[in-house]
Amino acid sequence: MKAIVIGSIPYSDSSRVVKVLTRDEGIIPVFVRISKKSGGALWHPLALLELNDLKRKNSGSLATFKSAERSGKAINTIQDPKRTGVAFFIAEVLDKSLQEGAHLETVFDVVEDGIMLLESDDHIANLHFYVLAKMIAALGLMPEHAEDGMSLHLETGEWYDVKPLLSKTSFLLKNELAELMIRIPGMDFADMRNLSLNQSDRKELLLAMVMFIQLHHAGLREIKSYDVLETIFD
């Protein structure tokens, strides 16, 4: 079964629990033994793996597997700090925004396509915007069109004729950024190279997309890797 690594916590000195995103079963916690020789090299954020003979007794238990191997290369992703930063960010958003048990077939396809671009494309500065906007569309959250001059309420998905304010307690995204978010899923990734936003708008749009997903799934949680992402693309 194909699986995408999205999170990991230590279980013992020689094992860990790794959260993976699968196409058919959504998010699954997997028990992984880590050998001293490998050091867990396979299990980095957004690693695309094939887990052979994956088994789980019930929905509350850890899954086990017979063997694991790469399903796609990750040479550039591991060696390039910018690509690594994007991988950490997207993986953390998935880990902290989506719940186990949710049907995530289309989200898996979006992330898998993003992993391929992360490894192969020369221009990845806006890849996280592209993947998150497509995730929002895949989850069925994206409004069909923007209402002229109105603010998008991220919790209700409705438009309001009020001043936008995005914070931990106010979820109103300004119209021009909401319009851009709606357009992104229909773009080819090559078009994202021309995405022109100042630093403030980049931060607001990215955090708004994370909030949009979280408000409808796992609830608001801080994405700690955001500051690293912002620094490496500054």
Task: List the SSEs and their pairings.
Blueprint: E1 2-12, E2 15-22, E3 26-33, E4 48-52, E5 67-70, H1 75-79, H2 81-97, H3 105-120, H4 127-138, E6 151-153, E7 158-160, E8 165-166, E9 171-173, H5 175-183, H6 199-215, H7 226-232
Antiparallel strand pairs: 1-2, 1-4, 2-3, 4-5, 6-7, 6-9, 8-9
Helix pairs in contact: 2-7, 3-4, 4-6
Characterization of the model:
With 234 residues, the protein is α+β, with helices and mostly antiparallel strands. 35% of the residues lie in helices and 20% in strands. The protein has seven helices and nine strands; from the N terminus they run βββββααααββββααα. It has a five-stranded antiparallel beta sheet with strand order 3-2-1-4-5. The protein has a four-stranded antiparallel beta sheet with strand order 7-6-9-8. The longest helix has 17 residues, at 81-97. The termini are far apart. The mean pLDDT is 94.
In short:
By secondary structure, the chain is α+β, with helices and mostly antiparallel strands. It has two domains: 72 residues, Beta Barrel (OB fold (Dihydrolipoamide Acetyltransferase, E2P)); 161 residues, Up-down Bundle (de novo design (two linked rop proteins)), CATH 1.20.1440. It has seven helices and nine strands, in the order βββββααααββββααα.
